[in-house]
Write a structure and sequence with these properties.
Blueprint lengths: L1 H4 L8 H19 L2 H16 L8 H19 L2 H16 L8 H19 L2 H16 L8 H19 L2 H16 L8 H14 L1
Helix pairs in contact: 2-3, 2-4, 3-4, 4-5, 5-6, 6-7, 6-8, 7-8, 8-9, 9-10
Amino acid sequence: QHSIALTPSTHPGMSTGLNNLGNSLRTPFERLGNVIDLDEAITSQQRAVSRTPDGHPKIPYRLHDLAVSLQTRFRRLGNIGDLDEAIASERHAIFLTPEGHPDMPTLLNLLGVSLLERFERLGIVADLDEAIASGKHAIDLTPDNHPDMPIQLNNLGASLQARFERLGNEVNLHEAIDSKQRAIALTPDSHPDLLTRLNNLSNSFQKR
């Protein structure tokens, strides 16, 4: 905060300082839950994005950081406007990221999760279809031995099951089970998320 106060608004390093401040402010929110910290984080990250041109190599990262903070505030306060802005930011980040970039699966995965959450709130099937397409694209770009692969498979399984529950297409449920089984197969027995993933798979079998 002191660094930004001492930096002229036209300084080329201002956007970097604002984004770093936003990430730093989100950390105490995650630890202590003070929404004021999260509000300040989002304001800083929005300012950072507004000062970063689309051609800048850091703009996809800044858009992603902003999307994470907005999604976090949506989960805390339930304001659909935050989720809409998170989705728009993530889409923009994906648009500006070249295919084959190592961060592309992370961007696609977050977009898929955000779209699923908006479907759960508003019931728009197009959001669910885009969530599934984003999830499948992320998986196609991720090697099996990557530590994020089980997360992506589990998230895709959730979207596929939601589509089955909404439209009754059994193919979606079979695909959901396959994704969740792959996620569990790639999750070590000592992993803290294994129990949740097993429970999710059990729920899918029960649905079938």
